[in-house]
Amino acid sequence: MKKPQLPFVVISVFGIALILFCLFGSQLTPMDPTQVNMQDRLQKSTGDHWLGTDHLGRDLFSRIVAGAQTTIGTSFLVLALSLLIGVPVGLVSAYIGGKIDRFLMRIVDAFLAFPDYIAAIVLSGLLGPGLLNLIAAMVIVKWVGYARVVRSIVLQEKSKEYVLVAKLNGVGTLPLILRHFLPHVGGHILVLATLDIGKIILMMASLSYIGLGTQPPTPEWGTMLNEGRAYFYNAPQLMLIPGLAIILFVLAFTALGEYIRGKYQVSR
Amino acid sequence: MKLIGKRIIELLIFLVILSFLSFVLMKLAPGDPVKQMLRVDDVAVSEEQINSLRTELGFNEPVYIQYVKWLKRFFQFDLGSSYMTKEPVIDELAAKFPATLRLTAASLVVMLLIAVPLGTLSALYQNKWIDYLSRSVSLIGASIPSFWLGLLFIQLFSVRLQWLPSMGTGTAAHLVLPSLTLGFAMSAVYMRMVRASLLEGLKQDFVRSARARGISESRIFIFHAFRYSLTPILTILGTSLGSLLGGTVIIEVLFAYPGIGKLVIDAIMNRDYPVIQGYILWMGLFVVLINSLVDLSYKYVNPQLYVKGGDKT
Amino acid sequence: MIVIVLAIKHLVIHNKTKQIVKGISLKIEQGQWMALIGESGSGKSITAASIGRLLPSGVTLKGGSITFKQEGYVPILGKDISYIFQDYRSAFTPFLTIGKQFDETIRTHSKLSKKDRKVAIFQALKAVNLPNERVYKSYASQLSGGQLQRAAIALALVMKPALIIADEPTTALDSVAAAEVLQLLHKLKEEAGCAILFITHDLRHVRKYADRAAIMLAGEIVEENSIESLFHAPDHFYTKKLFNAIPSLQKTPDRLLDTQKKVLI
């Protein structure tokens, strides 16, 4: 077996660390993020509370850490589910071609024509507030983009000669898809997905902000922004810190995505 | 002419599919609209009253009949009435839409005013300091949630400095903060696109040929390179408008701006299904219109694609 | 009196990693057809581009001089020197009509009235055997390869430059169109009295029309002489190799004969 390449290793390690954090991260918070303590409310940074407390006396630092779990973890979940649906659909649609392909693409185009934010808002609004409904709404909106990209890549490759040669040699459908098309698709999808994470995080925060996502008291950076709004004058950190957290993470992921894209384009 | 006819048919099919999907969605959504409606009046209701309202609204009939009836009314431009206000949905939408349109237009202007000059400078002076500066601004700007920026603007310009209003509508001043917020947020990504398209344009071989003929750099840029990049720029503008419309919903809620974005959010909170459905269809129509306009513009940017082959002897 | 239109002295050009042109010198006289022959990578196209300051980014002139007509005179691109490129499609901007691009060039270099410009364009198109009305209104995509290259020639000649630099103008054309293009170039050169720097890798084009030729190998000019001298008495081993490689209809090359001088294939 070939030694796996460095980027693959890095991303896998990072991915596993992230998954572990999302599953067990709540163990890392120094204090209970939902513990209300009205006497200590709106404090600035102290020994006990590194970032101070919010308007209900809850430790801000713990809320941020727990919020990371919610916001980032959920975003990755949305991404994973969208890929899980979108990539196979795109692969199969392009490979089979014909009427099925055209039919599926009509649906995909109809989805894509509609602005994604509006669709997500309406969908999650109709399903009702709550994290699960938000996830469902975003996945429904996101999977189509990936299906389309995957399909166009496969279509491009399908017409190339090596596919014909493989078929003549008797390579079956599944190995063909997995061994020949998937690697081409993989690189593009990696770039798109990394860039998309930031967008998903922002979308989640925006929808939570207008009340369609997680509900209090669940800590999530978007809802925390909403809660912190009223106290901006005397306790701006309630709004600034979750905001900065969002910006930093989105920035990091987007920069990572751009970096990968740069590397990938050069090697191509 | 044939092109327009085809477009209209596609539009109708799209709207029908959209209406079907939204109808299905309404029916599948949890919660009972009838109970919701009655609860609005804050009166204790009896089973009898609930059932009579149900029958009145036609909810007791089989689903496909409900859909057919709804479709019939749809083609007569009747989108039903709001459960909340009892006004016709189409009136509500038409009344609030101009406000959203104004916000969208103003935000678009802001977006273009920021993105086009910065993107152009970035392309012309590739890898110089201005390029790095605008690319950094673009990266950071794309990572900021629009509503967070809006909140900051409100705090700074409304509360502290008292220069601009933060809520409502009525004067041009009311448009400033919302459109600045939205425009800035959108410009971050658009700036990248402008830069990339222009760089593509400047790399084209025919640009070198024009230079070899002695055409001035400024003329080459405007009439050759820039025009070449108009095609991708316009295409992305069309997609950006879709995102812009989505963004207006959030911004309208933040600034309590009475457009259809705020209308639909209120409707969602109150389970006012006719309004939600009307909104979906209205937006669907608008989006198709935008896409058609973009398609039409291609004819002017790339006339060579619309002429016949020619005699190649 | 012999007028030297272009004098290149010890020209050195670098790219980011190495030297591409290693000190070449060349003189072109008025009305002369000078061929610059070499294989890909020999530096001939870069030399041609450097004359009009059209070097791509990362490639710079590091030494030597290029003088047009006299010291200190900076030639105007499009008026004193014009180019014809190998890729005829790229000579014209796809979304502007051919006529408009001619017009643009004339307006850049002269103050002719709109009517006079149109007359000049029609004349130029006619001189290359193109139907002037139709081509004037056409877009590049509506013309064939040969037509486009002829239009490119017309465009290169419209301001009556003293030097035309043609970088492999016939390489991408079929032999009929290529022959037409060469014939036209020769005719126009005679009529206008301009000099031509003709870049190519194919010797067969050179024999019929060129006056002199310079052979370029790995960034250096290894031999430069009149066509007759080169063909009958090549000096440098590379020149000999080039000329021996031309397939002949009469002689069978040694490599195709077996030991008893009978044809193998």
Task: Describe the protein in words.
The complex is a heterotrimer of chains A (268), B (313) and C (265). Chain A has 268 residues and is mainly α. Chain A has helices spanning 6-24, 60-96, 98-113, 116-127, 131-158, 161-168, 173-209, 221-228, 237-267. Chain A starts with 5 loop residues before the first helix and ends with a helix. Chain B is flat, with a radius of gyration of 25 Å. The longest helix of chain B is centred in the last third of the chain and has 38 residues, at 217-254. In chain C, the strands form 2 sheets. Chain C has a 6-stranded mixed β-sheet, sandwiched between helices. Chain C starts with a strand and ends in a 21-residue tail after the last helix. Chains in contact: A-B, B-C. Chains A and B meet through helix 4, helix 7 and helix 9 of A and helix 1, helix 6, helix 7, helix 10 and helix 11 of B.
Level of helix content of chain C? 25-40%
Radius of gyration of chain C: 20 Å
What's the helix-strand series of chain C? Answer: EEEHEEHHHHEHEHEEHH
Biggest interface and its residues per chain? Answer: A-B, 38 and 40 residues
Mean pLDDT of chain C: 87
- Name the strands of the widest sheet of chain C in spatial order: 5-6-7-3-8-9
Proportion of residues in extended strands of chain C: 15-25%
Portion of residues in helices of chain A?
A: over 70%
Report the oligomer. Answer: heterotrimer
Q: Mind summarizing the main beta sheet of chain C? A: 6 strands, mixed
* Average pLDDT of chain A: 79
Question: How many whole angstroms does the radius of gyration of chain A measure?
Answer: 22 Å
Produce the secondary structure layout.
The complex is a heterotrimer of chains A (268), B (313) and C (265).
Chain A: H1 6-24, H2 60-96, H3 98-113, H4 116-127, H5 131-158, H6 161-168, H7 173-209, H8 221-228, H9 237-267
Helix pairs in contact in A: 1-2, 2-3, 2-5, 2-7, 3-5, 4-5, 5-7, 7-8, 7-9, 8-9
Chain B: H1 2-28, H2 33-40, H3 47-57, H4 63-75, H5 89-124, H6 129-143, H7 146-160, H8 172-203, H9 205-212, H10 217-254, H11 260-269, H12 273-301
Chain C: E1 4-14, E2 19-29, E3 33-37, H1 44-51, E4 60-68, E5 81-84, H2 98-109, H3 114-127, H4 132-137, H5 145-157, E6 163-167, H6 175-192, E7 195-200, H7 203-209, E8 212-217, E9 220-226, H8 227-232, H9 237-244
Parallel strand pairs in C: 3-7, 3-8, 5-6, 6-7
Antiparallel strand pairs in C: 1-2, 1-4, 8-9
Helix pairs in contact in C: 2-3, 3-5, 5-6
